[in-house]
Design a protein that fits this description.
about 90 residues; about 80% helix; 3 helices; mainly alpha; single chain; about 0% strand
Length: about 90
């Protein structure tokens, strides 16, 4: 059975992939959709971190996911600046 940590780790990877794809996409509507997907993935991770004991997350897993959240948030902020606040 897959772990909740593995799911959240995949969400973080997806969020960063969506952001990278948005940077490279020429269609502004598609880029906006990709950034929405990244924000959705980030929200899922944050919900998992809101109750880590319920999801059986260890201290190391929590620290890892918190770091990935910071990376995603920073990338979203940077992308927002580049795209003019979409």
């Amino acid at each position: 059975m897959p772990s909740w940590f593995g799911f959240l780790q995949t969400e973080a990877d997806l969020a960063l992939t969506f952001i990278a794809m948005a940077r490279d996409h020429l269609n502004p509507e598609r880029s906006a959709g990709l950034l929405r997907n990244a924000r959705t993935a980030l929200s899922q991770i944050q919900r998992g971190l809101a109750n880590p004991a319920f999801h059986g997350l260890s201290e190391n897993e929590i620290a890892f996911l918190e770091q990935r959240c910071t990376e995603v948030e920073s990338a979203l902020r940077d992308e927002n600046v580049v795209r003019g606040g979409q």
